[in-house]
Amino acid sequence: MSDSTLQARPETRHVPDRLNSRAFRTLRSWESLLLAVAIAIFIVNSFASPYFLNVWNLSDATFNFTEKAMIAFAMALLIISGEIDLSVASIIALASTAMGLAVQYGAGTPELVVIGLAVGLLCGAFNAVFVTIMGLPSIVVTIGTMSLFRGISYIILGDDAFRGYPASFAWFGQGYIYWVFTVEMLFFVIIALAFGVLLHKTNFGRAVYAIGNNPTGAMFSGIRVQKVKFILFLLTGLMSGAAAVFLTSRLGSTRPSIATGMELEVVTMVVLGGVNILGGSGSIPGVVIAAFVMGLVTFGLGLLNVPGIVMSIFIGLLLIGVIALPRLWTMAANRRRG
Fold first, then answer.
1. Which of 73, 201, 206, 306 has the most CB atoms in a 10 Å sphere around its CB?
2. Is the predicted pLDDT of residue 263 greater than 50, yes or no?
3. pLDDT tens digits, one per residue of 22-33
4. Which domains does the chain show, CATH number per domain?
5. Number of CB atoms found within 10 A of residue 64's CB
6. Radius of gyration of the chain (CA)
C-alpha cells in the first residue's frame, strides 16, 4: 500500500465529523430555514411596495405580531408538553371587558393593568382545573371556554363598546421607548428572553420536554406532571391577559369581538416556529423568527391592500402546510428507502 493512500485515510475518516459539526447542524435547522424565509419576504416586500422600507412603517409593522407572540411563547411550552389552549383570544376579550368595566368606575392605569393580568390568570387557572385535576382533554375544555369567555363579554357589552381609558394607559400600546422602538417591542424582547431561559436553561424547561415526549416516564422520573401543566396553563392565561392590556391600550376601546380569530394565528406562529403539534420538541428562537415571518407577511399584504379574509385564508393554509410538511417529508423518505 502506498504512502499517499495511508495519508489520505485520516482525512476521509474526518469527513463525517465535519458534516455532523454543530455549525453544519445549525445550517440545516428549521430556525435557519425560517430566517432565510424572513429575509426573502423582507426583500420581496421592499420591491412590492415603495412604502415598506419607511422606518416608521416598519415600526408599525411590529404591532402585527408582538401581542400574538407574547401568547405564542407561553403556548409553545404548553404544546411542547402535549396540551393546547384555544381560548386565548376569548381570554383577551374577557380581560379587556373587565378593564373597560373598571374604567366606568374610575379605575386608573395601574388598576387596569392588574385587572387585565388577574383576569387572564384566573381564566388560565379555570382551564387548568378541568385539564389537570379533572383529567379532561385540553382541546375539548378550551373549545368550551373559548365560547364561555367571549359569551360573557357579549352579555356584558352586547353591541356597545367601552371607551374613555386614561391617557396614561395608551403608553402600553401606543408609546415609544426611543425613536421608532415601541413599548410593545421592548416587552416582546423581555418576554422572549424570559421564556427562552425558562425553556432552555432551567429544570422546569427540561421537565416540559420530558412530559411532552413521555408523560408516564416523566411521572416515574419524579416529575410532578400535573403541577407542571397547571403552571403552563397559568402562564398562557397570564400572557393572554398581558396581550389584552397591550391590545386594548393600542385600540383605545373594548368590544366583545376584540381579538376574534387570534387563537388560530397564535397556534400557527407556534407550529411555524418548529414546535411539534404533538408535543416533545420545539424552541423559543424558532417562535421568535416565526413571529417576524408572519408579521412581515401580513404587513406586506396590507400594504398591497389585500383584504383581511384573504390573509385569514393564507394563515389557515400556512397552518395546514406546516403541520403536513413533516409528514409528507417522512412519506417521501420512506418511499425512497422502499
1. 73
2. yes
3. 544 554 588 888
4. 32-324 (1.10.3470)
5. 20
6. 23
